[in-house]
Amino acid sequence: MNAISTDKAPLAIGPYVQGVSFGDMVITSGQLPINPETKVMPDDVAEQTSQSLQNALAIISAWGLEASNIVKTTVFVKDLNDFAKVNEAYEQFFVSQNAPFPARSCVEVARLPMDAKVEIEVIAVRG
């Protein structure tokens, strides 16, 4: 297992790594919607969704993978009333990357770090 680190995604805010590679698989930690350049989190839930996915993409890209290699996502949302907005941004991300939709779980949680509205983790596989 190898730790993955890139300055194109936010640094971990605790005792964990941005992602790990294990054979042909890359697993990211949950990605908050923090812009790695500005260190700012957008307020809008759709923008948060897009930023979280961009952060996850940056991590898997550091290992030579792309959005089409993502086979599973887990989406954590603060409020399932935002599901339609999250879904739309999620769809736009994969369509814009010309990537197939991966398997997905989406769950509402009581609270996310830094009071984010969305956090997304991905599993990507080479091949």
Automatic annotation (TrEMBL):
Q: Which is one GO molecular function term here?
A: deaminase activity
Domain of life assignment: Bacteria
Family annotation (Pfam families): Ribonuc_L-PSP
Q: Name one GO cellular component term.
A: cytosol
Q: What family does this belong to?
A: Belongs to the RutC family.
Descriptive protein name: RidA family protein
| Originating organism | Vibrio chaetopteri
